[in-house]
Design a protein that fits this description.
Length: 179
C-alpha cells in the first residue's frame, strides 16, 4: 500500500514534467555577483548576428523584455547587463519501418506477402541561446539555452517563443531567485 501511495504522485509528476516541449540548460560565471544587476539593454551587435527572421527577432526580444521586467529588471540606456541572443536549427528525420505481413527472413523472397511500409517524418528543432553580459567588463556572466520543435503556424510560433524564453529566464539567477 505504501508503494502505491508513493508511485501515484511520482507517475503524475513524471507526466506533468514530460508535457513541456522545451528542454532548458544554463551555465554561468561562478565568480559573478548577480545581486548587483538591476537593469538591462539589448546588445545590438550580437542580436544582428542571430540567424532568424526579423519578425522572430522582435518576438524573441519582446518575450525577453517581458520576462526580465517581471523579474524586477528595468530597461535602461545605462544598463548593468546586456542581453544578446543566438539561434541554431537542425532538421530531424525520423523513419518508421513497418514490415507486418508474411515473409521469409530478411531480403527479397518470392514467398513474401504483406503490406510493409515506411513512414518518414521531418521536424525542425530550434535552439535559442540567451546571453547576459556584464555591461562594464563586457564578459559573459550567464547563458541560458532552450531547445524545442519549431512550427510555421504563426500563433503556435509566438506561443513556442514565449514558452521557450519564459523557461530559460526562469532559471536566472543561478540560485533561483533574484535578491
Amino acid at each position: 500500500m505504501k508503494i502505491k501511495n508513493f508511485l501515484a504522485p511520482l507517475a503524475f509528476l513524471l507526466v506533468l514534467t514530460s508535457c513541456s516541449s522545451v528542454r532548458v540548460a544554463t551555465d554561468y560565471d561562478r565568480e559573478a555577483n548577480f545581486d548587483q544587476y538591476q537593469s538591462f539593454a539589448f546588445y545590438k551587435p550580437g542580436i544582428d548576428k542571430a540567424d532568424v527572421s526579423d519578425l522572430d527577432k522582435k518576438r524573441i526580444l519582446r518575450a525577453i523584455e517581458a520576462e526580465m521586467t517581471a523579474k524586477g529588471f528595468s530597461k535602461s540606456e545605462n544598463p548593468d547587463l546586456l542581453v544578446s541572443i543566438f539561434t541554431k536549427t537542425k532538421e530531424n528525420v525520423n523513419i518508421y519501418q513497418n514490415n507486418f505481413g508474411w515473409g521469409y527472413g530478411w531480403g527479397w523472397s518470392p514467398w513474401y506477402w504483406g503490406n510493409g511500409y515506411n513512414t518518414v517524418s521531418r521536424t525542425t528543432e530550434g535552439t535559442l541561446y540567451i546571453d547576459l553580459i556584464d555591461a562594464e567588463s563586457m564578459e559573459l556572466v550567464w547563458q541560458g539555452m532552450g531547445t524545442g520543435a519549431l512550427t510555421m503556424d504563426m500563433d503556435d510560433k509566438i506561443e513556442r517563443i514565449n514558452e521557450m524564453v519564459q523557461k530559460i529566464i526562469e532559471r536566472y539567477p543561478p540560485d533561483g531567485e533574484k535578491k
